[in-house]
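Two proteins, back to back. First:
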Amino acid sequence: MLRYPAIMHNDDDGFWIEFPDFPGSYTWGGAEEIPEEAAANCLADSLLFLMQEGKPLPEPTAVSEASFLVAPRYTAKGLENGKRVYKEYIASQTDREISLMNDSDDVGDDIRSAA
């Protein structure tokens, strides 16, 4: 299983976590939240996004003293969000494919005549 380094920062309101291998991906939470769960959900979302975009997954970098390893996984809360994002992605791809087919005269005629 892939595991990526994460760096946690503490502040007065809780924490925030960044991922060196995923610029722009970060999560945060208050004192009542579990940082490892927040990090696992965020990492799962980041990987899902890259897969949806057809981009390669980065190789995990070395762990520094300031980081900890995170395996991507969804907790119950994160899984609901992941399912929603995935369903929206599938729906958008289906709509896009239908739109592309309708824009093509040959394919569009074939589809319309079969209907």
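And the second protein:
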Amino acid sequence: MYKLYCRIYQGVFKIGMNFIPWGMPKTLEGPGSVKKLPKWIKKKKIKNVLVIGGSRTSYYLVRHLLQVGIKVCLVESDPERAAELLLCDLEKLV
């Protein structure tokens, strides 16, 4: 019975994929790409962004996103790094 359920589930997704819009992901590369991303996100009318990981690049990205008025949620698994990021100039971090 479980196999039948799985086959029906797969079939529904196979048919549904024809109706779900899909596009190639756009990548921003090169120098200054972190600075270009917030403007691109703002142009797409995205209001909230989730950033995973508290690397240096994430830090700069979050700063630029906040500067253009986008709400940001930053997720970092290392508690020490998360506290370090909060002590920086990210007071608006949600």
